[in-house]
Design goal:
- The complex is a heterodimer of chains A (454) and B (483).
- With 454 residues, chain A is of the alpha/beta class.
- Chain A is 33% helix and 26% strand.
- Chain A is built from 16 helices and 24 strands.
- In chain A, the strands form 5 sheets. Chain A has a 6-stranded parallel β-sheet, with helices on both faces.
- A two-stranded antiparallel sheet of chain B has the order 1-2.
- In chain B, α1 packs parallel to α3, α5 packs parallel to α20 and α9 crosses α10.
- In chain B, a hairpin with a 2-residue loop joins β1 and β2.
- Chains A and B meet through β2 and α2 of A and α9 of B.
């Protein structure tokens, strides 16, 4: 597909890289010649210099042939204008980054009036991601499928976990009460496997398990993880993410302490978030953290502007015995480095934003012909999780899975039938209308018949 | 410097070159003139060197950086010419390797300067290969590689930048591979069109093909010693003049034309400059040479048009010996040798866009001397040009003239000929035109120069075709450091 990207900032660039890897044609529009030159040198894109809200610039960039227009400049207003003009000039779908909370309130009206098909709010999306991590404090990463009925959760196996060191095939006899979950994918030493019955989970593996949310919680409790709900949260930095996050988690009964350095900002937050305990001070001051009871917190979330401060205070918090530490890191260069330091939950707003836009783009690709309902990339894109709907008349319907041939490096992970989640074993079968989730190491599958055959 | 990555890509280029020799071999086999074994051997050797490089050079890091990109392009052109010289040597047609190398470089860089004197003895397979190098070299081998090899990785823009003529890269599609394919398709279509028109003018298919290659690549090799005048056909001269100007234009503009974007084509500022310069030159020369052609306006215009087109498009075909023209007419041609044609064309020279921008910049500097506070952005193609690009262009023009002067100096060290011959030889080489003035004019050739002067000229031709930097980079120590 041809994608027009307006604004080559942090999100724009990350998005462009991902889109090129998925073999889309990308045209970047930006006003800064220097930025464009860098893009042209390092990315296989076409660059156009100019204002993306200018009709002539858009026409030069071939907006009439564009399948998707993404406006990700620094200004919300320009983004909206780009979408409005772009749509009139023939772009099929438009996506705008809109981050100001004030526009958020009238979002539906704005979207329909301006022809914006998707509005992305990076701060809100990031806050949503963090709030999910707080609901499952034992998870490093969570993806939901089938409208949230199925959750896929990533954790790092430790020697204490009951499942470590035992063949998956023998688990049900060794541990009779173990809730039935699917071991979807395992990453060990940077290589990813989709485990079979003979696979043994070892210490330090990154394991993905899938099941419905209740079973997942039971599973982690059974293997000996602390599944206590997070009650006390300390947030560092009073930016927009902190604001959205507080709004999301306070109603669920969590108690939030928020540390902000600037007096005016702190006063404003205190006014806007009456139930939050707003503290004025420097978050890197360990004395302050101790006084406000860091040791007794269930979760510590570092959301300062500077990545380094987030990392350092995050490390400090985890040495002080805080169970769940989430740090914001916007510079992707360090992604491989940080887990080695012992911080598992690292949040990058630009990656979250670009991932949510990518998901939308993929859905449009698949909408034009193929039958994938949803597609997720896990473990840095090494594994794909695909959601299909089984169709009437396909050859695999009604046949037990053990009698079907499954493609190598792929498994049928979960079947959702009339709202019920089934983790399938050999005797289960697929009925028409089932949502079927496939986990695969292969790229580019787009039909359930390619994965399972008679 | 990631040597293995460079080696791997060079291997692929040699394989492409071996493939490009196959049509010549087929022609040689068909005509039985004894050159088939030479071509077959050259193909085998080229492939035998290319294949192991391609298979066994496995770089750990496959990321192409600016330095690898430029070094690949620079070395690729040197290597291609070395292997491209093999058929000439093996067939015994040009037994001296330096001479053969000169001929191959002249072919690939679309210069068209030749050391050949006995055209009647040239076998058809060899003649075909000699001209086919023009066609490949015109658009560029790395562009061909990109068109053939979609999975070369992301940062291929360095390769194309290093190989494509002009200060700015004209990409016609978001993906480099698609862009390369589209440009090659346009190039092929225009070449086929010309081939058909030449057939209609009464040329036999072989001559038509040879002269199509020479024109499309703006090279200028002919299989006749008298070049185009061998046909004694005004129609052929006019057709070739027209196509020389056509291939001297940015090929991306034809893509706009094919897509129905007429306005983009006619609004192109560079094209207007190019056509105006040529029109003025044609009229001036036609006036000056009127007495030479018995005051026959038609013939004078035709002669002027052909020679202006052949020099400004840096092709170098000849229909008359312009060294016999009045000095004023020769002076106009000399100036045109510097200018060359458009960005993104197959031609050489400094390029119209650079000339236009230098003019505008000079005008601005003059304004600035009497009005120091005036802000004056240089505009081109309807938009402001950034200062860094202007700066690069100034440096480019300086280096271009400098290299031409040093080249002329080095050539003169051999002690042959006169200043006019030696310095225009250097100019014609760096501008990829073909003939110069004096003893290297359309009626002469480069055979008499010694090996030293010929090597200097090959460097000038390569530097001119690749627009200096890829060749200069090879000689820069810093680029070869491990990191």
């Amino acid at each position: 597909m041809r994608i027009l990207l307006i604004g080559a900032g942090k999100v724009g660039r990350t998005l462009a890289e991902n889109l090129i890897n998925e073999s889309h044609d990308v045209v970047i529009i930006d006003r800064d010649e220097e930025v464009l030159r860098r893009c042209e040198d390092t990315l296989d894109v076409m660059v156009i210099s100019g204002n993306g809200a200018n009709a002539q610039t858009l026409i030069n960039a071939g907006v009439d042939q564009a399948d998707i227009l993404v406006a990700a400049t620094a200004s919300d207003e320009i983004n909206m204008l780009c979408c409005l003009i772009g749509k009139r000039l023939g772009a099929k779908y438009t996506i705008a980054r809109i981050r100001d909370p004030e526009y958020n309130e009238s979002q539906i009206l704005l979207q329909s009036e301006l022809g914006i098909d998707m509005a992305v709010n990076p701060e809100r999306a990031t806050a949503l991601e963090i709030s999910r991590l707080l609901r499952f404090p034992f998870a490093n990463n969570i993806e939901s499928f089938a409208k949230g009925r199925v959750e896929m959760v990533e954790f790092r196996a430790s020697a204490k976990d009951a499942v470590t060191g035992c063949r998956l095939r023998d688990l049900s006899t060794r541990l009779p009460g173990l809730p039935r979950v699917l071991y979807a994918a395992v990453e060990r030493d940077k290589s990813v496997t989709i485990p079979t019955g003979d696979f043994t989970i070892e210490e330090n593996d990154r394991v993905y398990v899938a099941a419905d949310p209740v079973t997942i919680t039971h599973f982690f409790r059974y293997i000996g993880r602390d599944t206590h709900q997070v009650k006390d949260v300390m947030i560092l930095g009073g930016g927009r993410i902190s604001y959205y996050l507080s709004k999301m988690i306070v109603p669920t009964g969590m108690h939030v302490s928020l540390i902000e350095m600037k007096p005016a900002k702190a006063a404003q937050l205190s006014e806007e978030l009456p139930q939050v305990n707003v503290l004025l001070g420097d978050g890197t001051n360990q004395l302050l953290l101790e006084q406000e009871g860091l040791q007794n917190m269930d979760a510590f979330i570092a959301l300062c502007d500077r990545d380094e401060e987030n990392l350092m205070t995050g490390l400090y918090a985890s040495t002080q015995g805080v169970n769940k530490v989430v740090v914001k890191n916007n510079r992707l260069n360090y992604t491989d480095l940080i887990p080695k330091l012992g911080l598992e939950s690292v949040i990058s707003p630009r990656q979250i934003t670009s991932a949510s836009i990518l998901r939308y783009v993929r859905a449009r690709v698949n909408g034009s012909g193929t039958k994938v309902e949803k597609l997720y990339r896990l473990l840095n894109g090494k594994v794909e999780a695909l959601e299909f709907i089984a169709r009437k008349g396909d050859p695999y319907i009604g046949i037990p899975l053990k009698e079907l041939n499954t493609r190598a490096n792929s498994i049928v992970a979960v079947i959702v039938r009339r709202g019920k989640v089934i983790v399938p074993f050999g005797n289960d079968h697929i009925e028409d209308g089932d949502n079927v989730i496939i986990i695969t190491c292969e790229r580019g599958l787009n039909d359930l018949n390619e994965v399972i055959r008679k | 410097m990631n040597i293995k990555l460079v080696a791997r890509n060079l291997g692929f280029i040699l394989l492409i070159e071996a493939g490009c020799m196959v049509p010549s071999l087929l022609i040689a086999l068909f005509h039985h003139e004894g050159d088939a074994p030479a071509l077959a051997l050259a193909i085998l050797i080229t492939a035998a060197v290319g294949l192991p490089l391609r298979l066994f050079a496995r770089p750990q890091i496959t990321n192409l950086r600016a330095r690898e990109g430029f070094v690949i392009v620079g070395l690729a052109w040197v290597l291609m010419s070395v292997f491209g010289a093999l058929p000439f040597v093996f067939s015994g047609f040009i037994p001296n390797f330096v001479d053969a190398y000169f001929e191959a470089v002249s072919g690939f860089t679309t210069t068209g300067s030749t050391v050949v004197t006995d055209f009647e003895r040239m076998p058809m397979g060899i003649a075909f290969w000699r001209s086919f190098t023009h066609w490949i070299g015109g658009m560029g081998v790395l562009v061909l590689m990109l068109a053939l090899l979609p999975k070369l990785g992301g940062r291929t823009s360095y390769l194309v930048k290093a190989e494509s003529p002009g200060p700015s890269l004209s990409k016609v599609a978001p993906r480099m591979t698609d862009s390369a394919k589209i440009l090659y398709v346009i190039y092929t279509i225009l070449s086929l069109l010309m081939f058909v028109v030449l057939l209609l003018c009464g040329l036999n298919p072989f001559d038509a093909a040879i002269h199509t290659f020479g024109t499309a690549g703006t090279g200028g090799f002919s299989n006749y010693g008298q070049s185009i005048s061998a046909f004694h056909s005004p129609a052929v001269e006019i057709v070739i003049s027209f196509f020389m100007l056509l291939f001297g234009t940015n090929l991306a503009l034809y893509y706009a034309l094919f897509n129905g974007r007429w306005r983009d084509f006619f609004k192109s500022e560079e094209l207007r400059w190019y056509l105006s310069i040529n029109a003025v030159a044609v009229l001036l020369i036609a006036l000056m040479i009127l007495p030479e052609y018995q005051w026959d306006v038609g013939t004078s215009l035709r002669m002027a048009l052909f020679n202006v087109a052949t020099v400004s498009s840096t092709t170098g075909f000849a229909n008359a010996d312009y060294t016999l023209w009045p000095v004023a007419a020769r002076a106009v041609l000399l100036v045109l040798m510097f200018c060359g044609s458009c960005t993104g064309s197959t031609a050489g020279g400094i390029k119209t866009m650079r000339i236009a921008l230098m003019m505008k910049q000079s005008k601005r500097e003059i304004t600035r001397t009497y009005s120091p506070r005036r802000i004056n952005v240089v505009r081109f193609e309807g938009r402001g040009v950034d200062e860094q690009m202007l700066h690069q262009i100034s440096i480019f023009v300086f280096l271009y003239v400098l290299m031409m002067l040093i080249g002329g100096l080095l050539i003169s060290l051999e002690g042959l000929y006169d200043l006019e011959t030696n310095f225009t030889a250097a100019l014609t080489c760096i501008s990829n035109v073909g003939p110069g003035f004096g003893a290297v004019g359309p009626a002469g050739n480069f055979a008499a120069y010694g090996p030293f002067a010929k090597i200097v000229m090959t460097m000038l031709m390569l530097a001119g075709r690749l627009e200096l930097f890829p060749i200069l980079v090879i000689f820069h120590r810093g680029v070869w450091r491990r990191a």
